[in-house]
Every structure is written in structure tokens, then in C-alpha cells.
């Protein structure tokens, strides 16, 4: 039997593996300091690792959405520092709660003695996590700044179609079938929030989840109804009915906030196309 894992599933497997490694190392580090049995403390560390994994995943959503990379260095430091205190406090509080539940109230005083070390570990892991997230944000930002929008601009110079039409010779898309493992998900066009280019694949973000499919952006740009879907950037096609607000990002670029909370940037030519559809 052949198992095929999606990119998202592989990511979660890696994170769970890191969580398990953290549990083992955390138990070994604390073993000389506590009198609890190895197995009991390993169970507690595994739960703490899952909690830490959840916090890290939350940071991966919160920090990019707050667009920290665009702040001044001093403001970045203040924001990261304040967020670090909050995350460490939450981490210590959750760890204390799990200790109370697993180790029992009679042993909770022993755990109080190692709270400072627990806080230090949480803060250290927070710093490592934000370094990774910030680096990823900087790479994406530099890629957007330096990559020419030539393909998209070339498309925008072509003859415009009636909003209800698709490109000549293209087949109108009414639904999209995506295979995930042994299941096939059928995505209705009206459920699509936006489509993002991802190498040889596209990521289709819907009201119900995110799906990867081996297709091209031009295929969807040509097949989706142009009264509702606009290619606002060489990497994004947006369902205009899912846009909550449009804000000035910098110079001629706009930031679109969608109804699922995601934010994407529109290029100058993409924003012009969007204004045409919205009749602004």
C-alpha cells in the first residue's frame, strides 16, 4: 500500500517529531532536578511540547499578519519583546496547569522550584521561533520587491474581456477536484477566497481549508469568471466578494484583507484591474 503525504501533512509530521524530541530532551534536562519518575515527567513534557507547538503555530499566523517586518527596528524590538513576555507567561501558566493535573497537587511545590528554568526554556524557544518567522518574512518581502511583475503586466496589456467571459478557447471553471491522500475534495468556485502560486503548484484557499493542486495561474485566470476573480499580483488571484477592505501599503501598492483574515499585496497593475471590476 502506497502512502502519499501532502505538503501540509509533511509539515505537521516534522513539527510533531520536533515536539517529541523536545519532550525527550526536556525530560533528560530536568531529571537530575526533580524526583518524579522518568515516564511521568516524559508524559508531562510531551503535553508541554504539544502546547508549545500550538503557540508556535499561532505566532506563525499572528506575526506575519501584523506585518512586523515593515516596522522600524526599535518598534520591532518593542513589539517582539512585549510578545515574548506574553508568550512566556502563557507558556509557564499552561505548563503549571498540566503539572498540577499530571503530577498532582501534593507535588506542585516541587514544580514551583523549577518555574524559572521553565520560563527560560520558553523564552529561548520563542526567540528561536521568531528568528525563523522574521527571516521567512524578510525573504518573502525581498522576493516580492525584487521579482519583476513582467508576466502579470504582459497579461494586463492584453485585450480586456467582458467580465462574464473567459479567455477565448478556455473552458469555464465551475468546480475544482483536488485529491488529498485517498480522498477527492470538490471545491465550488464560490467557496474560493484566493489562489496563490507555489512553484509548479497553486494553493487554493477556501472557506473550508487550503488545497494544493498541480496547475498554472494562467489556467485559473482564464477559466474563472472575471467579474468575480481578479489577478491582483503575479502570485495571487482573488475572489472580490471575499475582500473585507483595501488599504494603502506603500507607494502604489495596496494591501487586501480577506474575510478569513489573510492579507495579500496587490501590485499597481493588479490594483488597477481590481478597481475596474469594483468600478472604483
TrEMBL record:
The keyword Transmembrane helix applies. The chain crosses the membrane at residues 12-30, 50-69, 81-102, 114-133. GO terms for molecular function: DNA binding; phosphorelay response regulator activity. Keywords: Membrane, Transmembrane, Transmembrane helix. InterPro entries: LytR-like, LytTR_DNA-bd_dom. The keyword DNA repair does not apply. Residues 176-280 form the HTH LytTR-type domain. PROSITE patterns: HTH_LYTTR (PS50930). This is Response regulator receiver protein. It comes from Fermentimonas caenicola.
Amino acid at each position: 500500500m502506497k502512502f502519499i503525504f501532502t505538503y501540509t501533512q509533511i509539515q505537521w509530521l516534522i513539527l510533531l517529531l520536533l515536539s517529541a524530541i523536545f519532550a525527550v530532551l526536556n525530560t533528560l534536562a530536568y531529571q537530575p532536578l526533580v524526583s518524579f519518575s522518568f515516564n511521568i515527567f516524559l508524559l508531562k513534557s510531551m503535553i508541554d511540547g504539544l502546547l508549545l507547538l500550538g503557540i508556535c503555530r499561532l505566532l506563525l499566523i499572528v506575526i506575519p499578519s501584523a506585518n512586523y517586518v515593515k516596522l522600524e527596528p526599535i518598534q520591532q524590538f518593542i513589539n517582539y519583546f512585549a510578545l515574548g513576555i506574553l508568550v512566556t507567561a502563557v507558556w509557564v501558566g499552561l505548563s503549571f496547569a498540566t503539572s498540577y493535573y499530571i503530577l498532582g497537587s501534593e507535588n506542585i511545590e516541587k514544580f514551583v522550584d523549577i518555574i524559572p528554568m521553565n520560563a527560560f526554556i520558553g523564552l529561548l524557544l520563542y526567540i528561536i521561533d521568531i528568528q525563523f518567522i522574521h527571516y521567512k518574512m524578510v525573504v518573502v518581502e525581498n522576493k516580492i520587491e525584487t521579482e519583476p511583475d513582467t508576466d502579470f503586466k504582459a497579461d494586463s496589456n492584453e485585450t480586456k474581456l467582458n467580465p462574464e467571459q473567459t479567455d477565448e478557447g478556455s473552458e469555464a471553471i465551475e468546480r475544482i477536484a483536488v485529491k488529498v491522500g485517498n480522498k477527492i475534495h470538490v471545491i465550488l468556485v464560490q467557496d474560493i477566497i484566493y489562489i496563490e502560486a507555489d512553484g509548479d503548484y497553486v494553493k487554493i484557499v477556501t472557506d473550508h481549508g487550503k488545497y494544493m493542486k498541480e496547475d498554472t495561474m494562467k489556467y485559473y485566470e482564464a477559466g474563472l469568471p472575471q467579474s468575480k476573480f481578479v489577478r491582483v499580483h503575479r502570485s495571487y488571484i482573488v475572489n472580490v466578494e471575499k475582500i473585507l477592505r483595501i488599504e494603502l501599503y506603500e507607494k502604489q501598492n495596496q494591501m487586501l484583507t480577506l474575510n478569513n483574515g489573510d492579507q495579500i499585496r496587490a501590485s499597481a497593475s493588479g490594483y488597477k484591474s481590481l478597481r475596474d471590476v469594483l468600478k472604483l
